[in-house]
Design goal:
eight-stranded antiparallel sheet; 2 helices
Length: about 210
């Protein structure tokens, strides 16, 4: 994830702030006030989505839902000994899984909104096999996307909520991305990611992984 962090989009807001790399930082959204219950995509008959704009994610199952169509997709990002970033004590390797549950909503064949829930659970280690010692990385968040112009993703407005990154071993003071992030780039919460570029933070990480 941080392999992914750097692959997971630094959630949309991280992305806007230029933090994207790939793993935990690979780090989303619901349409307006519309709520998508867990059983929503199972409500109506299956719909042919071949002409939808833009196309739903690969593997999506689309069903009628009132006056709209909801498409549901589930998949996971897997990091298996992926190099995430380099530190003074060597490369940090990530072993993690990041499942995602995605609802996309269409009206008249045009995308109007998206709601994504995601979480990550894994470890960082100096070994590609993930052998001890390790530090644990966790996160759980969701994001909503509203399209001002149906079908036009360039008009998307994204709001992200949750804890996108936290690290065990007393290292959260160097990596803690949590709160609510709004489309205008305002946010309420904590935005700390010095683990990726601070000498002090990386020395603390190295101590945890070599102690």
């Amino acid at each position: 994830m941080f392999a992914g962090f750097r692959s997971v989009q630094v959630m949309p807001h991280r992305k806007r702030r230029g933090l994207v790399q790939c793993g935990v930082i690979a780090v989303l959204s619901m349409c307006g006030a519309i709520a998508f219950p867990a059983t929503a995509a199972n409500a109506g008959p299956i719909v042919d989505s071949s002409d939808f704009v833009p196309a739903p994610p690969q593997g999506a199952v689309c069903r009628e839902h009132g006056t709209s169509v909801l498409c549901r997709t589930r998949f996971s990002f897997i990091e298996d000994g992926t190099p995430a970033f380099e530190t003074p004590c060597g490369w940090i390797y990530e072993n993690s899984e990041m499942p995602r549950d995605i609802y996309t909503e269409y009206v008249g064949g045009l995308l109007v909104g998206r709601h994504v829930t995601s979480r990550v659970n894994g470890t960082w280690s100096l070994s590609p096999t993930g052998s001890e010692p390790t530090v644990r990385i966790i996160g759980g968040w969701n994001w909503r996307t509203e399209l001002a112009v149906p079908g036009d993703e360039s008009t998307a407005m994204i709001t992200t909520h949750g804890n996108q990154l936290k690290i065990s071993g007393g290292l959260s003071r160097y990596a803690n991305i949590s709160g609510i992030f709004y489309p205008n780039e305002d946010y309420h919460g904590v935005l700390i990611f010095s683990i990726f570029d601070s000498v002090q933070a990386q020395e603390a990480l190295c101590d945890a992984l070599t102690g």
